[in-house]
Amino acid sequence: MSERDRYVEETKAQLDRWNAQIDEMKAKMQEAEADTKARYEKQLEEMRTQRDEAQKQLEKMRAASDAAWDDVKAGVDRAWDQISDAFESAMARFR
To answer: Residue 20's pLDDT band (boundaries 50, 70, 90)?
Structure first.
């Protein structure tokens, strides 16, 4: 497996983990009281937004030509770090 393929697979695996965390939080929200539900929904929306942005970055990587791969990867790495931090911050507010 090439470095590029491995990188894309690792990124996809992280998205899958985030999707699982979103589903877990959604289940907790269903059991919460009304005021807590509103707070959970706000955090879930923030997490979904970050996940969607991460999905866009993954698609950029998949679509990049071999010639553009290094430049795309550098840009995605920067964006991914910001997305990851924002997602984890939103997730921490659930705990």
So the answer is: very high
CA–CA distance, 91 with 43 (Å, rounded to integer): 7
Q: How far is CA 50 from CA 1, 35, 60, in A?
A: 28, 24, 15
Q: Which residue has the tokens 């699982």?
A: 20
Closest CA to 54 of 89, 85, 13, 11: 11
The answer to whether 54 and 22 have CB atoms below 8 angstroms apart is no
Predicted structure pTM score: 0.72
What is the separation of C-alpha 86 from the centre of its chain, rounded to a whole number of angstroms? 9
Apex CA 55: angle with CA 49 and CA 57, to 5°? 110
